Amino acid sequence: MSGDSVPFALSASAFSSTDSGEATKLFEELRKPLLRYLVCLGLSPDEAQDVVQDAFLSLHRHVTSGNSQENIRSWLFRVAHNQARNRQTSYQRRFAAPLDGSCDDMLDHRTPERELLAKEKFRQLRAAIPSLTEAERECLLLRAEGLRYREIGEVLGIATSTVADSVDRAIRKLAEKCNV
Amino acid sequence: MCKFSSKLIAWLDKELLDTEAAAMDQHIPACRECREQANAFRQVSHSFAVYARAVPPRAASSPRRRWLVPAAIAAVVLAGVLLWPRGRAATQLEVQQRAQAVAPMPAIAQHRVPIAAHRSPVRWRVQKQAAAWQPVEPTIQIVIPADALFPPGTFPEGVGFVADLRLAADGSAGGLVVRP
User: Fold this and answer.
1) What is the ipTM of this complex?
2) What letters, b where the CB count within 10 A reaches 16 and e where it falls short, cover A73-100?
3) How far apart are CA B63 and CA A48, in angstroms?
4) What's the pTM?
5) pLDDT tens across A117-173, in order?
6) Are B41 and A1 a contacting pair at CB < 8 A?
7) Does domain A100-180 have CATH number 1.10.10.10?
8) Do B102 and B111 touch, CB atoms closer than 8 A?
9) Cβ A140–B48 below 8 Å, yes or no?
10) DSSP assignment string, A68-127
């Protein structure tokens, strides 16, 4: 249940000049998921890049000043999430309509029938997403990045049981509206 | 509805306590309703994850260059339109005045004679020298609000471009620096 968080533990030595491989690996591993999450929250790609940079800088300061972190992943997501909250001027606008041109990229093109089905599936999903509350959407986005309920709770500052409820409600809403 | 249904999503996410998960493991194969629901939830979860992953990497791939290039082009064009005729005339006048001011210098005096007779090559040389005497040209700064040039939403709010333009003595734009 908590096995996923083990590789994300980090000590101050990861940021020392002789042992920076660990920090670099962490950066490479988590940069894209963080960017994705932030852009889905409504930040522009530029803003998201800035926030991710800042989050890693904060992590560097945090760890080198002697604070060891057990779960760096949720720590980074939390810092990024809070920064995004502070910056967002257009938090709501983006996620409901980001995918017009890119639907094709995620489709399976093997047969026209499958393609049609997949397009329809994503169209329904897209139409259903605005019915989620903000918290439900955030929970699903973090879950899609592989975070455990406990980690999602840490990122959003809510109880694990609240995360479980939100995820449950959100998936049921989407399933109902997508007729699957 | 099956009483196990409420725990299906947490079960799929492997978020149940061991005892609860064991009970679900036993129940699901025997319950068609739960199996079908579990499949639906699995599908929706997968679709959502694909959906959330589809846009941001594209959007985040080359964020700065995407808007800097049109910005730079626009700034060059705008600078050309705004500054070319007057800039050229003013500079030529200035060059002539400077050339007169330094008339005692033999090299220039020699060059000044052919200006009228053989226009282009010699004038070019004189202008080059005139520019060399006073290498620090006044910097012209143009501030262009991004929304004056592009449709709304192309750039983050509040973005403008500053173009530092250096005019060469012949009136052409040299050393254009565009920055957001």
Assistant:
1) 0.71
2) bbbbbbbbbebbeebbeeeeebbeebbe
3) 10
4) 0.56
5) 777 888 888 889 889 999 999 999 999 999 999 999 999 999 999 999 999 999 999
6) no
7) yes
8) no
9) yes
10) -BS-HHHHHHHHHHHHHHHH-SSTTTTTTS--TTTGGGGS--S-HHHHHHHHHHHHHHHH
Instruction: Report the chain B residue with the minimal C-alpha distance to residue A123.
Output: B51
Q: Is A140 on the interface with B (CB under 8 A)?
A: yes
Q: Is B64 on the interface with A (CB under 8 A)?
A: yes
- Distance (Å, whole) CA A79 – CA B157: 24
Write the pLDDT tens digit of every residue in B29-86: 999 999 999 999 999 999 998 888 876 544 444 444 445 545 555 666 666 666 655 5
Q: Which two tokens stand for residue A63?
A: 């760890």
- All residues at 6 or more sequence positions from B72 whose CB lies less than 8 Å from its CB, including other chains: B178
Q: Is any Cβ of chain A less than 8 angstroms from the Cβ of B9?
A: yes
State whether residue A79 sits within 8 Å of chain B by CB.
no
Put simply, whether A50 touches B (Cβ < 8 Å) is: no
How far is Cα B71 from Cα A1, in angstroms, rounded to an integer?
A: 50
Q: Which residue of A has its CA nearest to B14?
A: A1
Q: Which residues of A touch B52 (CB under 8 A)?
A: 36, 40, 140-141, 144
CB contact set of B113 (below 8 Å; sequence gap of 6+)? none
CA distance A133 to A168: 13
Least confident of A102-106, A146-150, A159-163, B158-162: A102-106
Query: Are A39 and B45 inside 8 Å of each other by CB?
Result: no
Per-residue DSSP letter, B29: G
Residues of A in contact with B158 (CB under 8 A): none
Is the per-residue pLDDT at B103 higher than 50?
no
CB-CB neighbours of B136 under 10 Å: 6
Q: Which of A38, A105, A175 sits opposite B41 (nearest CB)?
A: A175
Looking at the domain that runs over A1-90, which CATH code has it been given? Answer: 1.10.1740.10
Residues of B whose CB is below 8 A from A171: 9, 41, 44-45
Structural domain spans, chain A: 1-90, 100-180
